[in-house]
Each structure stands twice: as C-alpha cells, then as structure tokens.
Amino acid sequence: MRILVIGATGTIGRAVVDALSDRHDLVPVSHGSTPLTVDLAQPDSIRAMFEAAGLVDAVISAAGLARFGPLAGLSDDDFEFSLANKLMGQVNLVRTGFFQIRDGGSFTLTSGVLARSPMVGSAAISLVNAGLEGFVRAAALEAPRGIRVNAVSPPWVTETLQAMHMDTRGGQPAATVARLYVRSVEGDQTGAVLELPMA
Known about the structure:
Blueprint: E1 2-6, H1 11-20, E2 25-30, E3 36-37, H2 43-53, E4 56-61, H3 76-97, E5 101-110, H4 123-142, E6 148-152, H5 158-163, H6 174-186, E7 193-194
Helix pairs in contact: 1-6, 2-3, 3-4
C-alpha cells in the first residue's frame, strides 16, 4: 500500500513509520522537516499536500496541536488554535482526502487518552479529542467507495513523559502504540476508536 503518514517525524509518527516501512510504500509528511509538508490548520495547505502526493491507499495522521492549561486561563485564541489544528485539521484531512484515496482505502486519525480520562488543564485537548472520536464514528457511516475511517486514542507515551521529565509509570512505548495504527491500516474495522487496555 501507498500510505501518507502525517506527523511522520514526531514520537508516535516515527514509530508508525518503523512499524510499516518494511512492507508498505510510505510518504512521510511533517510541518516542515520532510520534502512534503502540511499545516493542518490551513485547508489550502491540506489540499496542496494531497495534490502533491497523488493517489494513496491510506492516510495516517499522527499530528495535531492543542493547548494545555487551566480552564480559567485558556483564551478564545487557545480554543480556536486547538479546534483549527487537532480537530478541524484532521476532519479536513478526511473531507479533502476522500478525493485522493483509492477505493477501499483508510484514514487513521489521532485523538488521545484525555478524551476519556481528563485532567486539570486538559479542557481544550479533551474537547478536541472527544469531538474527533465522534466525527470518526459518524464519518465512517458516510465514507464512499468502501473507505474506512478510524481513530487511535494513544495513552501517555513513555518517550514523551521522559522528555517532559515526568513519571513514566503508566506510559506505553511509542512502538507499542504504533501497533494500533498498523491494526487500523491493515485490518477491516471502520468507525472504531482503537486504544490499548488500561493498565
């Protein structure tokens, strides 16, 4: 399969590339460190990315930014940034990508554990993650030509916790999380939110 991997240079994205590269033709995409780039907050950038990439069999998005902070301190701009990037950016990947993906292809988007297990400071992120999961379930019902739409809801990733100098207990290695993306791309599920069992 020819697979577009958005966020290919991030922690999860690199693990996804490692997990799939030996048996698929991958097209890596990032915000600025790969030949093919995209700004998820800009619909024109998404359209240009698809035009440059050409037809693909699958799209994986391991990208999307959202703001973290106390609810009382989150501004309108913080919410708009989160909605434009992680939520509408990935929604627009599907809406635009329907015309660039082959029959029977798939989209795999990324939500996150804060959709179901929020914490202090996660209001904007929990909002966009939960909204994305709802979109995936609904979009799968209307996807044309046998196209599948799923999301992966990663837990806290060990490498990210290490980089933030946080307790890594309860985290999962990026390579383990990447298996969920492999299952979405190579399986037959649609309208699913794939997640690892809670520890």
